[in-house]
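hey
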């Protein structure tokens, strides 16, 4: 059996063990039922909210916001990378922006964002873009720095311009790095989205999944609250472990990187 399959099997076993422990703690009554519901209650609550359509709408709203934010983040990453490569003056500017903005949590900008955009979808998108932009930019820049010099020489021999060199040589060659940046960026974006939705509340007809969790806590529906947290964990794990990890592995294989990683 492959190592990858073994890891997945072990992960499934750990999840099953965790669920057994959870249900056992509920059965022995170690914690109050109001704060520690049964797994059956959590699943029933989720099923009820999914059947009503409200939870599905909230999930779709959150996914729409995060897709918009990631697309904006990717576009800004490309533009800043082109600016970084345009000359020493702008190279210094981009590196200064990274050193200042990258360590800054998006939530720390909340008071400024509210002043600029008010309380709404634009504010959430701004916070998410800030969270995803810098890791994607750092990874893409690292990938460009690691491009084999032979690739540069081939581009020069074909008489490629700086723009053509970027899109035909540098960007494709550094894609494994860029996908790794997107993977990190998505994790940060997902956390920022949930946090922002909890803070801003319902900014649409029903709000997002973050508001769903916060609303359940307000009305002491702990089963629904845990169910919302479970949904967030499942979506995050699916995107990271299934979609982005496989995409990253595919890009590494295509461009000659080993799975063990040589960078």
């Amino acid at each position: 059996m492959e190592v990858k399959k073994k890891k997945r099997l072990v992960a499934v076993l750990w999840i099953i063990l965790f669920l057994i422990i959870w249900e056992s703690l509920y059965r022995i009554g170690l914690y109050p039922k109001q704060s520690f519901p049964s797994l059956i209650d959590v699943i029933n609550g989720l099923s009820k909210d999914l059947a009503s359509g409200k939870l599905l709408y909230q999930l779709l709203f959150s996914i729409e916001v995060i897709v918009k934010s990631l697309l904006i983040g990717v576009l800004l990453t490309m533009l800043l990378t082109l600016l970084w490569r345009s000359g020493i003056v702008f190279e210094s500017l981009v590196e200064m922006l990274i050193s200042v903005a990258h360590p800054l949590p998006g939530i720390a900008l909340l008071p400024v964002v509210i002043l600029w955009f008010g309380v709404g979808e634009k504010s959430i998108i701004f916070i998410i873009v800030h969270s995803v932009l810098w890791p994607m930019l750092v990874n893409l820049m690292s990938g460009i720095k690691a491009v084999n010099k032979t690739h540069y020489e081939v581009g020069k021999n074909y008489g490629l311009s700086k723009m053509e060199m970027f899109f035909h040589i540098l960007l494709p060659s550094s894609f494994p790095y860029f996908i790794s940046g997107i993977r990190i960026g998505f994790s940060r974006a997902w956390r920022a989205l949930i946090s922002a939705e909890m803070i801003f509340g319902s900014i649409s007809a029903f709000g997002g999944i973050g508001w769903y969790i916060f609303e359940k806590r307000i009305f002491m529906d702990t089963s629904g609250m845990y169910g919302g947290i479970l949904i967030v964990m499942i979506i995050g794990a699916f995107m990271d472990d299934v979609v982005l990890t496989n995409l990253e592995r595919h890009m590494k294989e295509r461009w000659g990187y080993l799975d063990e990683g040589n960078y």
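The two ends are 27 Å apart (CA to CA). The CA atoms of residues 176 and 251 lie 5 Å apart.
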